[in-house]
Structure prediction request, 274 residues.
Amino acid sequence: MTRYPRLMPTHPRLFTALVTSSVRMSPSFQRVTIAGDELASFEWNGFDHWFRIFLPPAVGAPLRLPVVSGRSWWKPYLAIPERERPHCSNYTVADIRAGSGVAEMDVDVVLHWDASGDIAAGVAGWAVSAEPGSPVGLLDQGPLFDPPDDMRGVHLVADESGLPAVRGILRDLGEHVTGTAIIEVPHADDIEPLAAPAGVDVVWIARGAGDGSVPGTSALAALRSRVTPHPHDYAFVVGESTLATEGRRALHRAGLPKSRITFSGFWKHTPHCA
Prediction:
Protein backbone atom coordinates (compact mmCIF):
# COMPACT_ATOMS: atom_id res chain seq x y z
CA MET A 1 0.00 0.00 0.00
CA THR A 2 1.26 3.44 -0.85
CA ARG A 3 1.15 6.13 1.80
CA TYR A 4 -1.46 8.03 -0.18
CA PRO A 5 -3.88 5.86 -2.19
CA ARG A 6 -4.29 7.12 -5.75
CA LEU A 7 -7.90 8.20 -5.28
CA MET A 8 -7.31 10.10 -2.05
CA PRO A 9 -8.00 13.84 -2.40
CA THR A 10 -4.90 16.03 -2.51
CA HIS A 11 -6.68 18.55 -0.29
CA PRO A 12 -9.16 16.54 1.82
CA ARG A 13 -12.01 18.60 3.20
CA LEU A 14 -13.10 18.56 6.83
CA PHE A 15 -16.89 18.54 7.36
CA THR A 16 -19.03 18.95 10.45
CA ALA A 17 -22.43 17.40 11.08
CA LEU A 18 -24.86 16.42 13.84
CA VAL A 19 -26.29 13.04 14.83
CA THR A 20 -29.95 12.62 13.92
CA SER A 21 -30.58 8.98 14.84
CA SER A 22 -28.98 5.70 15.91
CA VAL A 23 -30.59 2.32 15.13
CA ARG A 24 -29.52 -1.29 15.74
CA MET A 25 -29.47 -2.97 12.32
CA SER A 26 -28.43 -6.47 13.42
CA PRO A 27 -26.70 -8.12 16.40
CA SER A 28 -23.32 -6.68 15.38
CA PHE A 29 -24.14 -3.40 13.62
CA GLN A 30 -25.44 -0.01 14.70
CA ARG A 31 -26.36 2.57 12.04
CA VAL A 32 -25.80 6.19 12.99
CA THR A 33 -27.29 8.83 10.72
CA ILE A 34 -25.75 12.28 10.67
CA ALA A 35 -26.89 15.42 8.88
CA GLY A 36 -25.71 18.92 8.14
CA ASP A 37 -25.68 21.58 5.46
CA GLU A 38 -21.98 20.98 4.76
CA LEU A 39 -22.64 17.36 3.75
CA ALA A 40 -24.49 18.60 0.66
CA SER A 41 -21.07 19.37 -0.84
CA PHE A 42 -19.46 16.06 0.14
CA GLU A 43 -18.20 14.72 -3.21
CA TRP A 44 -19.22 11.10 -2.77
CA ASN A 45 -17.67 8.72 -5.31
CA GLY A 46 -19.54 5.60 -4.25
CA PHE A 47 -17.85 2.20 -3.86
CA ASP A 48 -15.95 2.14 -0.53
CA HIS A 49 -15.60 5.91 -0.14
CA TRP A 50 -14.22 6.39 3.36
CA PHE A 51 -13.47 9.14 5.83
CA ARG A 52 -11.92 9.80 9.21
CA ILE A 53 -14.55 10.43 11.85
CA PHE A 54 -13.83 12.72 14.81
CA LEU A 55 -15.92 12.38 17.97
CA PRO A 56 -15.96 14.42 21.20
CA PRO A 57 -13.64 12.91 23.84
CA ALA A 58 -16.56 12.46 26.24
CA VAL A 59 -20.34 12.63 26.17
CA GLY A 60 -21.38 16.27 26.16
CA ALA A 61 -17.84 17.55 25.57
CA PRO A 62 -17.22 20.09 22.81
CA LEU A 63 -15.77 18.86 19.53
CA ARG A 64 -12.39 20.40 18.82
CA LEU A 65 -11.11 19.58 15.34
CA PRO A 66 -7.55 19.70 13.96
CA VAL A 67 -6.47 22.22 11.37
CA VAL A 68 -6.20 20.51 7.96
CA SER A 69 -3.69 21.75 5.39
CA GLY A 70 -3.43 19.68 2.22
CA ARG A 71 -3.12 16.12 3.51
CA SER A 72 -1.61 17.26 6.78
CA TRP A 73 -3.77 16.80 9.87
CA TRP A 74 -2.00 14.35 12.17
CA LYS A 75 0.48 16.71 13.82
CA PRO A 76 -2.19 19.38 14.47
CA TYR A 77 -4.38 16.60 15.86
CA LEU A 78 -1.69 15.50 18.31
CA ALA A 79 -1.12 19.13 19.27
CA ILE A 80 -4.63 19.28 20.75
CA PRO A 81 -4.39 18.70 24.53
CA GLU A 82 -5.21 15.09 25.33
CA ARG A 83 -8.26 15.92 27.46
CA GLU A 84 -9.71 17.88 24.51
CA ARG A 85 -8.47 15.70 21.67
CA PRO A 86 -11.31 14.04 19.72
CA HIS A 87 -11.45 10.32 19.15
CA CYS A 88 -10.53 9.48 15.55
CA SER A 89 -11.35 6.34 13.54
CA ASN A 90 -11.78 5.37 9.90
CA TYR A 91 -15.22 4.55 8.46
CA THR A 92 -16.96 3.93 5.14
CA VAL A 93 -19.95 5.90 3.88
CA ALA A 94 -22.82 3.41 4.13
CA ASP A 95 -25.18 5.74 2.26
CA ILE A 96 -25.62 9.41 1.58
CA ARG A 97 -28.70 11.39 0.63
CA ALA A 98 -28.68 14.99 -0.51
CA GLY A 99 -31.48 17.08 -1.95
CA SER A 100 -34.01 19.81 -1.16
CA GLY A 101 -31.58 21.38 1.27
CA VAL A 102 -31.23 18.19 3.33
CA ALA A 103 -28.01 16.15 3.45
CA GLU A 104 -27.76 12.93 5.45
CA MET A 105 -25.09 10.25 5.76
CA ASP A 106 -25.35 6.76 7.26
CA VAL A 107 -22.40 5.28 9.14
CA ASP A 108 -22.49 1.57 10.03
CA VAL A 109 -20.52 0.78 13.18
CA VAL A 110 -19.43 -2.72 14.20
CA LEU A 111 -20.23 -3.42 17.83
CA HIS A 112 -17.70 -5.04 20.15
CA TRP A 113 -18.10 -6.23 23.71
CA ASP A 114 -15.53 -6.14 26.50
CA ALA A 115 -14.71 -8.94 28.92
CA SER A 116 -17.62 -7.97 31.20
CA GLY A 117 -20.12 -8.18 28.36
CA ASP A 118 -20.64 -4.45 27.92
CA ILE A 119 -20.38 -2.56 24.65
CA ALA A 120 -16.74 -1.59 24.29
CA ALA A 121 -15.73 2.03 24.52
CA GLY A 122 -14.72 4.06 21.47
CA VAL A 123 -16.89 4.37 18.38
CA ALA A 124 -19.08 1.38 19.33
CA GLY A 125 -19.92 2.97 22.66
CA TRP A 126 -20.61 6.27 20.94
CA ALA A 127 -22.83 4.65 18.31
CA VAL A 128 -25.24 3.02 20.76
CA SER A 129 -25.47 6.08 23.02
CA ALA A 130 -25.25 8.99 20.54
CA GLU A 131 -27.96 11.55 21.16
CA PRO A 132 -29.55 13.63 18.38
CA GLY A 133 -27.62 16.87 18.07
CA SER A 134 -24.27 15.37 19.06
CA PRO A 135 -21.48 16.82 16.89
CA VAL A 136 -19.14 14.86 14.62
CA GLY A 137 -16.36 15.77 12.21
CA LEU A 138 -15.51 14.01 8.94
CA LEU A 139 -12.29 14.22 6.95
CA ASP A 140 -12.90 13.03 3.37
CA GLN A 141 -10.41 10.38 2.17
CA GLY A 142 -11.95 9.12 -1.09
CA PRO A 143 -12.29 5.48 -2.21
CA LEU A 144 -9.67 2.79 -1.65
CA PHE A 145 -11.10 0.39 -4.25
CA ASP A 146 -9.06 1.11 -7.39
CA PRO A 147 -9.24 -1.61 -10.06
CA PRO A 148 -7.06 -1.41 -13.19
CA ASP A 149 -8.74 -0.63 -16.50
CA ASP A 150 -8.09 -4.15 -17.79
CA MET A 151 -9.68 -5.92 -14.81
CA ARG A 152 -10.95 -9.35 -15.87
CA GLY A 153 -12.67 -10.35 -12.63
CA VAL A 154 -12.89 -9.11 -9.05
CA HIS A 155 -12.36 -10.83 -5.70
CA LEU A 156 -13.56 -9.12 -2.53
CA VAL A 157 -12.76 -10.52 0.92
CA ALA A 158 -13.68 -8.94 4.26
CA ASP A 159 -14.73 -9.52 7.84
CA GLU A 160 -17.48 -7.48 9.48
CA SER A 161 -15.35 -4.33 9.62
CA GLY A 162 -15.13 -4.39 5.82
CA LEU A 163 -18.80 -5.19 5.16
CA PRO A 164 -19.81 -1.56 4.48
CA ALA A 165 -16.96 -1.28 1.96
CA VAL A 166 -17.82 -4.54 0.18
CA ARG A 167 -21.52 -3.65 0.19
CA GLY A 168 -20.77 -0.34 -1.54
CA ILE A 169 -18.40 -1.91 -4.06
CA LEU A 170 -20.89 -4.61 -5.04
CA ARG A 171 -23.62 -1.99 -5.39
CA ASP A 172 -21.54 0.15 -7.77
CA LEU A 173 -19.82 -2.51 -9.89
CA GLY A 174 -20.89 -2.81 -13.53
CA GLU A 175 -23.61 -5.37 -14.12
CA HIS A 176 -21.34 -7.58 -16.26
CA VAL A 177 -18.52 -7.87 -13.71
CA THR A 178 -17.77 -11.40 -12.52
CA GLY A 179 -15.89 -12.71 -9.51
CA THR A 180 -16.26 -13.58 -5.84
CA ALA A 181 -17.18 -11.76 -2.64
CA ILE A 182 -16.43 -13.51 0.66
CA ILE A 183 -17.86 -11.81 3.75
CA GLU A 184 -17.41 -13.09 7.30
CA VAL A 185 -19.69 -11.77 10.05
CA PRO A 186 -20.12 -12.66 13.74
CA HIS A 187 -23.72 -13.93 13.55
CA ALA A 188 -26.09 -15.40 10.99
CA ASP A 189 -28.49 -12.54 11.71
CA ASP A 190 -25.85 -10.10 10.42
CA ILE A 191 -26.28 -11.52 6.92
CA GLU A 192 -28.23 -9.16 4.69
CA PRO A 193 -29.46 -9.02 1.08
CA LEU A 194 -26.88 -7.29 -1.10
CA ALA A 195 -27.19 -5.69 -4.52
CA ALA A 196 -24.50 -7.31 -6.67
CA PRO A 197 -23.82 -8.20 -10.30
CA ALA A 198 -25.27 -11.59 -11.23
CA GLY A 199 -21.81 -12.86 -12.10
CA VAL A 200 -20.34 -12.23 -8.65
CA ASP A 201 -20.64 -15.20 -6.27
CA VAL A 202 -21.43 -13.75 -2.84
CA VAL A 203 -20.36 -16.08 -0.03
CA TRP A 204 -21.45 -15.34 3.54
CA ILE A 205 -19.76 -16.94 6.55
CA ALA A 206 -21.21 -16.60 10.06
CA ARG A 207 -18.80 -17.33 12.90
CA GLY A 208 -21.53 -17.93 15.46
CA ALA A 209 -21.70 -16.47 18.96
CA GLY A 210 -19.08 -17.78 21.34
CA ASP A 211 -17.48 -20.27 18.95
CA GLY A 212 -14.01 -18.95 19.73
CA SER A 213 -13.02 -18.31 16.12
CA VAL A 214 -10.54 -15.55 15.45
CA PRO A 215 -12.24 -13.01 13.16
CA GLY A 216 -11.14 -13.39 9.55
CA THR A 217 -9.92 -17.01 9.88
CA SER A 218 -12.92 -18.49 8.08
CA ALA A 219 -12.87 -15.85 5.35
CA LEU A 220 -9.18 -16.55 4.77
CA ALA A 221 -9.84 -20.29 4.53
CA ALA A 222 -12.64 -19.68 2.04
CA LEU A 223 -10.37 -17.45 -0.03
CA ARG A 224 -7.71 -20.14 -0.19
CA SER A 225 -10.18 -22.87 -1.15
CA ARG A 226 -12.54 -21.00 -3.49
CA VAL A 227 -10.54 -18.36 -5.36
CA THR A 228 -8.24 -19.19 -8.26
CA PRO A 229 -7.42 -15.77 -9.71
CA HIS A 230 -6.60 -15.00 -13.31
CA PRO A 231 -3.46 -12.81 -13.63
CA HIS A 232 -5.67 -9.97 -14.91
CA ASP A 233 -8.10 -10.10 -11.99
CA TYR A 234 -8.16 -7.55 -9.18
CA ALA A 235 -8.57 -8.25 -5.46
CA PHE A 236 -9.67 -6.17 -2.50
CA VAL A 237 -8.95 -7.75 0.91
CA VAL A 238 -9.76 -5.80 4.08
CA GLY A 239 -10.54 -6.34 7.73
CA GLU A 240 -8.58 -7.90 10.57
CA SER A 241 -4.83 -7.46 10.05
CA THR A 242 -3.99 -11.14 9.53
CA LEU A 243 -6.85 -11.60 7.06
CA ALA A 244 -5.56 -8.67 4.99
CA THR A 245 -1.88 -9.65 4.95
CA GLU A 246 -2.35 -13.41 4.62
CA GLY A 247 -5.10 -12.92 2.05
CA ARG A 248 -2.76 -10.85 -0.07
CA ARG A 249 -0.05 -13.49 0.30
CA ALA A 250 -2.42 -16.29 -0.71
CA LEU A 251 -3.64 -14.43 -3.79
CA HIS A 252 -0.11 -13.60 -4.88
CA ARG A 253 0.99 -17.22 -4.46
CA ALA A 254 -1.99 -18.21 -6.59
CA GLY A 255 -0.70 -16.04 -9.43
CA LEU A 256 -2.20 -12.58 -8.91
CA PRO A 257 0.42 -9.79 -9.14
CA LYS A 258 0.82 -7.71 -5.98
CA SER A 259 0.06 -4.57 -7.99
CA ARG A 260 -3.45 -5.92 -8.57
CA ILE A 261 -4.24 -6.49 -4.89
CA THR A 262 -5.53 -3.76 -2.58
CA PHE A 263 -5.31 -4.82 1.05
CA SER A 264 -5.75 -3.02 4.35
CA GLY A 265 -5.77 -4.17 7.96
CA PHE A 266 -8.59 -2.17 9.53
CA TRP A 267 -7.95 -3.58 13.02
CA LYS A 268 -5.97 -6.20 14.95
CA HIS A 269 -7.59 -8.97 16.96
CA THR A 270 -6.64 -9.30 20.62
CA PRO A 271 -7.90 -12.15 22.80
CA HIS A 272 -9.95 -9.93 25.16
CA CYS A 273 -12.11 -8.59 22.30
CA ALA A 274 -15.51 -10.27 21.95
In short: The mean pLDDT is 92. Residues 157 and 182 are 5 Å apart (CA to CA). The first strand starts at residue 14 and ends at 26. The first helix runs from residue 74 to 79.
